[in-house]
Automatic annotation (TrEMBL):
Catalyzes the dehydration of D-mannonate. This is Mannonate dehydratase. It comes from Vibrio tritonius. Pathway: Carbohydrate metabolism; pentose and glucuronate interconversion. Its cofactor is Fe(2+); Mn(2+). InterPro entries: Man_deHydtase, Xyl_isomerase-like_sf. One of its GO terms (molecular function) is mannonate dehydratase activity. It comes from the Bacteria.
Length: 351
């Protein structure tokens, strides 16, 4: 298992590479060109600039999260081939720089959805929160306005260029079905995976977050059955998973069973814990198994049983010790560092 830490880049992340360096066990930085609009071709100059910066701090650049998929590809529009060609060339350039895994998702419109960014927890910390009844009764534009009001950073999946076209995008998804999305995902993979096989990059799809439909939009990477269907779209070891325990945990999936079944196709894993409530709400918690609904200890033990040699990172942490005043929502320093120590502590204790 190779421990990594997600970082949003110089000038875009108040957590520094120097701070990350002080967390024991971190080998690599999970990075991206976060200002790059979906569908754009990544330049070798930009890729190498990021590579130089990260490697100078003593980390590898093996994992990129994400090379975003343009909405026209998800919608299956005639323009998709141009964006797929850009995607393929970007993969070639990333491989040339030494990247080994690319995490991406195929969620319509939103990469992730919460109703509150700093919901208070009983211990005085706060965390990302999903209130199901509110999602069912709010206009997505109103939700975006509320969440973006006091956040001075660009949140992945909610980039300004994407949000500016939100009304138009929702109009395009009218009468769009899950089967339409499956067909367009298959088309994308059949174009991209041969390039991955050629250059040695493994693609890992991120599960839908949350793992059920919202705002009338289809979600398809949500459970074991659908993961199996996805992997069979292009049955190649380069077509795999970025398994996220929190995303799949939002729908009460059996995560150890999913790992047992698809272990050889998991290239990257996000470990986080959430607490689910009977009414469908959920909130991020600490990484400890006893603090949430995801048995993180059993997840780590199952990975160890399969001699997992892929990449792992702590996912969304709580905001603790006042870091809600400066941290990117869900991506502070302290709780993710604690999460790494918990994950490695369990791993190191196993024979």
């Amino acid at each position: 298992m190779h421990m990594t830490f997600r970082w949003y880049g110089e000038g875009n992340d108040k957590v520094t590479l120097g701070q990350i360096k002080q967390i024991p066990g971190v080998e690599g930085i999970v990075w991206s060109l976060h200002d790059m609009p979906a569908g754009e071709l990544w330049s070798e100059e930009r890729i190498n600039k990021e590579k130089t910066l990260i490697e100078a701090a003593g980390f590898n650049i093996d994992v990129v999260e994400s090379v975003n998929v343009h909405e026209d590809i998800k919608l299956g529009l005639p323009s998709r081939d141009v964006y797929i060609d850009n995607y393929k060339e970007t993969l070639r350039r990333l491989a040339k720089a030494g990247v080994k895994v690319v995490c991406y998702n195929f969620m319509p419109v939103f990469d992730w959805t919460r109703t509150e960014l700093f919901h208070p927890l009983p211990d005085g910390s706060n965390a990302l929160f999903f209130e199901k009844s509110r999602i069912e009764n709010i206009d997505p534009l109103a939700l975006i306005e509320t969440l973006s009001r006091n956040v001075d950073v660009t949140m992945p999946g909610w980039e300004p260029d994407r949000l500016a076209k939100l009304k138009q995008t929702f109009k395009q998804y009218e009468n769009f079905t899950a089967e339409d999305l499956w067909a367009n995902l298959g088309y994308f993979l059949k174009q991209v995976i041969p390039v991955c096989e050629e250059v040695g990059i493994k693609m890992g799809i991120h599960p839908d977050d949350p793992a059920f439909p919202i705002f009338g939009l289809p979600r398809i990477i949500t459970n074991k059955e659908n993961i199996d269907r996805f992997l069979k779209l292009v049955d190649s070891p380069y077509n795999g998973l970025s398994l996220c325990t929190g995303s799949l945990g939002s729908a009460n999936n059996d995560l150890p069973d999913i790992i047992d079944t698809f272990a050889d196709r998991i290239h990257f894993i996000h470990i986080r814990n959430i607490k689910r409530f009977e009414n469908g709400d959920f909130i991020e918690t600490s990484h400890r198994a006893c603090d949430g609904s995801v048995d993180t200890v059993k997840v780590i033990k199952t990975l160890h049983k399969h001699h997992f040699q892929g990449y792992v990172r702590p996912d969304h942490g709580r905001h603790i010790w006042g870091e809600e005043n400066w941290a990117r929502p869900g991506y502070g320093l302290y709780d993710r560092a604690l999460g790494i120590m918990y994950i490695l502590g369990v791993w190191d204790s196993l024979p």
